[in-house]
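Hello,

Our lab assistant flagged a job as stuck in the queue for most of the afternoon. It eventually completed. Since we weren't sure the result was trustworthy after the delay, we are filing this so someone can double-check. Below is the sequence as submitted and the structure that was eventually returned. Let us know if re-running is recommended.
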Amino acid sequence: MNPWDHDPALTEERLMEVGRLITVGRNHALDRYDPTVGCDAWTVGCEAFKFQCYQIETASYDLPWLEVLNSSMEFVFSIGGVGMRFYRGEPSDPHERALRQTFSELAQMSLFAEEELERSGETILYRFAVETDIDGSITQITFVVLSGSSPLIVWPVPLDQPVVGIAPIRPERSDGVVLPFPKVSPKKDEKDRKTED
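-- returned structure --
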């Protein structure tokens, strides 16, 4: 089942746009990474989270289907009225924080029919799972509909191109090239040039 089969508000274009916003935010954090001033994996993670939130919040001013419901550290946004969050990790194994339902999400109406909720016996959650490589770059973004901790829908967000950091995390430095000393002589004036001719 695709997300838009579950709910028409969750279109492919909208999910791809949010995936793009998350990518831009994380790439900004990677671009600022500088271990010579104390940056490490923790600082990249903090900046990536904040920059991703900023990208979504800024885009929400121009996109009528995108709304920020809670701009705190529990950052919650909605796509067409469907409340959701994002987390770093695998879509099939969300961590405990990703499974917490916020008040902003509780305020949103469930998209499943009551009989489906009774069958599952669990709360329905909507999440973007952001998987990263060891250097912090994004390897995959997946939209996930969870029933408790079990994925009901797992939809990999197509990324137009490979997502890599804008600047390398640990740039390699060359040894340089040894150049001969330059030839230096006094500047000739106009009178000296005429005598040489």
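-- support follow-up --
The delay was a queue issue, not a problem with the job. The result is valid. The first strand starts at residue 66 and ends at 70. The chain has one domain: 3-196.
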